Each structure stands twice: as structure tokens, then as C-alpha cells.
Amino acid sequence: MADLNKLFDSIVAGRLEPAIEVTHQIIEEKLDIPSVINNYMIKAMEEIGDRFQNHKAYVPELLMAARAMKGSLELLKPHMKGEKIQSAGKIVIGTVFGDLHDIGKNLVASMFEGCGFEVINLGVNIPNSRFVEIVKQEKPDILCLSALLTTTMVNMKEVINSLKTAGLRNQVKVMVGGAPVNETFAREIGADGYSSNANAAVIKAKELLAIA
């Protein structure tokens, strides 16, 4: 019988192989997949996120947990028979124009996915017009902008101005993050939120969307 607590523990510990082993059992036993995802897998990512926030886990542990979560999720998806997981919200994330850094952004994207958000990861060096185009097409709840350089963080304000010009600013929350970015800068450019790390990003996103 599938040991769901083992799945939870494996994801928290970032152990892909045992997570995959339990996932195969879940599929064989035809368990309720949305329930497993919501009650064990997402909860496991929230647990490792809390540990990270409290300095009891670090970036490598977060990455390994996200890897175990993704490995399990990829196996489960084909067996969901059209069932739709209740998404916590839709997020578009990308690194602003002129900036090629993506490690931090990808970690944030993985945490969002692990905690039940639908994520569209645009990549790096994204022009303002592309952000506007995607917001128009995808209608995300939150747009997350990343920058690692002081010379490119100014482009975050340009993206926000472009959204205003396109009449889209009131339709999406904007979050910003990255090494040179801080709360004061976020307020100055008119962003809705700032986060200093991946778990803080999830917490801020839930706060902006009023998710308990």
C-alpha cells in the first residue's frame, strides 16, 4: 500500500528515488491524485519552505525538494484523466531586459509550482513588450520581475510603466526581487510586493491574492 507519509518525507528531504517509488504505487492503486498532491506534495513544499525561512534549510535543500516534487508530479499528470488541480493562482515570471541571470528566478518559479501555483517562466532578458504581451494573453494574477544587476533593475519600472500605458496595470499584481532590489525600491517603482527569497515570494503572493 502506498505510504503517503513517505512521499511527504521524501519531498521534504529532497530524495527523488523514494518519492518516485511511492508515486508508482499511487498510480497502481488508483488513489485520488488531486488529494495526494494537495495534502501531501504541496504540504511538503510548504514545510521545506518554512524550514528555509527559519534558516533550518538552505538553497540546495530547496532545489532538491523541488526536483523530487517535479519528478513525482510528472508521473502523476498523465493519470489525472482530465481532472484539474485547484491552482493557487497563475504567475508569469521573468528576468528583465539586459539581465541574463536565472538561478534565483528558477528557484522562485520552482517554489511557486511546488506550492500549487500555475507558473509561466519566460526566461531571461525579456523586453518590456514581451511582458505586456504575455499579461494580455495569459491574464496572470501576478507578474514577477527579477533582476540581479543595479543597471537592469531600473527596467522593472519600465515594465510597470508599459503595463500602465497598455491599460493592464490594474489587472495584475507586480512582484519584484533579486539581489539589488529591496522594499524601498519596490515601493518607489509602484510594485505591489517584494520578496528577498523563494519562500518569501510564495508568502507574499498568497498575501496579495488573499490566500490563507
Automatic annotation (TrEMBL):
**GO annotations under biological process?**
homocysteine metabolic process; tetrahydrofolate metabolic process
**Domain B12-binding per the UniProt entry, residue ranges:** 88-212
What GO MF terms are annotated?
cobalamin binding; metal ion binding; methionine synthase activity
Keyword Coiled coil found: no
Q: Which GO cellular component terms are attached?
A: cytosol
Keywords for this entry?
Answer: Cobalt, Metal-binding
Q: Which family does it belong to?
A: Belongs to the methylamine corrinoid protein family.
Protein name, please? Corrinoid protein
